[in-house]
């Protein structure tokens, strides 16, 4: 896989922060060598975080995020600042862009405090040294740069690379349970909710890893599964199914064959499998009037039989026998205050990086609100949770 084919969720995320007119966007453009961000002398030109997946040498595949100024004003400005601060949940490195002629302002010091509290490594880029008579000596995590004439831009990129070299996620989706030569069946429904002409990301990534392992992979639709099992001389090591077909597939696959789902694989890959397994048992204790949050990390167009907005609410109502209220979020939306919910049911998080998924789990923990995962919840409601997590020793 070439560097430019690495999905955004697997890339190092680098956020550029600072006051309005500190030169964030100009510095982003200088570092990337592209006109990624709109540049103007007018304060507040960047009104929303701007993200770009790209290759940044000498580091490799990254996502660069240019954020609005943290000193933006008014009601709309406050919303922009909140959007900027929300990116802290997903970044691996922060670049604080300041004016080379000035000391850090109180707001800039608050940002440094936030970086430290979240254990985010950071670089202070003192910009606009072209306006100074002399270039001060860079030290520790501070570097003097000019987006205008390119002073120390390469040195800044070297610092970025040095601070993020250990960020890469070396976790595997299933390489610890599937070996070279093993047979694996993937069950992939093709219905109105399936994307036209492509597979969803968890399926793509799982197939890619199975190819790298050297496993023999057979991909079928649910109705083709019985014939696929009969066609094999020896049983497969593992069957992986789309979560919405869990109930149907579990009845077909013999008990002595390991069975799990793509969503459960990603609950382990991106988050904390034991935590979301524990959260599933809250489904048994829901009360009339409880609110359940269903959250997805992507923003796909919802179909009439969408798993998140239609199927899961139906299964939860049937399982609990209660009158419940469901709320939904998608993409980068995720409430800071979860206290009004009795349960959070989250997707596998394939479009989120591991850091953002962990941040969402931590928010639920801090609020003492149980959180589970699509695949885990569906398996529990179908009475097959123990079987579906058995491959992982749980």
Can you describe this structure?
The protein is an alpha/beta fold. The chain has three domains: 3-164, P-loop containing nucleotide triphosphate hydrolases (Rossmann fold, 3-Layer(aba) Sandwich); 183-265, Rossmann fold (3-Layer(aba) Sandwich); 274-385, Rossmann fold, CATH 3.40.50. It contains 13 helices and 14 strands. It has helices spanning 24-32, 74-86, 106-117, 153-164, 201-213, 225-231, 246-252, 262-270, 273-280, 307-320, 354-366, 374-381, 385-389; strands at residues 12-18, 50-56, 60-66, 93-99, 122-127, 142-144, 183-187, 216-220, 238-241, 258-261, 291-295, 325-329, 343-346, 371-373. The longest helix is centred in the C-terminal third of the chain and has 14 residues, at 307-320. It starts with 11 loop residues before the first strand and ends in a 5-residue tail after the last helix. The model is unreliable at 38-46 (pLDDT under 50).
